[in-house]
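Memo to structure team: turn this sequence into structure tokens by end of day. - J.P.
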Amino acid sequence: MGQSMRVFISSSLKNKELNKRIAEVLEEHGFGVYLPQRDTPQSNDIETVFRANIEGIKKADVVVAVLINYGRDLGFEVGFAYGLGKPIIGLTNDESYKEDKMIAGALTDTAKVEVFFWFNDLCSIKEICKHL
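Reply from structure team:
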């Protein structure tokens, strides 16, 4: 059996339970998941957190960006993934992300974005698995 596709989940800690459920569903479908809230050493040391997340993105085959309650870290992570040419999947429940032009631009550049889903429930996550 070959190596499973690796997914980096970029999201706010405000979405802790949602992030955990997204990771569980992806893992149930055979994907390797890097979830920073779980897999990055939780430290006040900026360098530790930064390096761990950078490595997680570099090793990922695709980045899933949860565009709900997000902040600046997600903007950086999406931009970094975009710069590396990683496919990005955005999950959202409204269009407010469009106010952030750089994030919206990265998510609409069809050369870099494999799929973009409107996210309303956990059933959508199962649909995403079909496209990875």
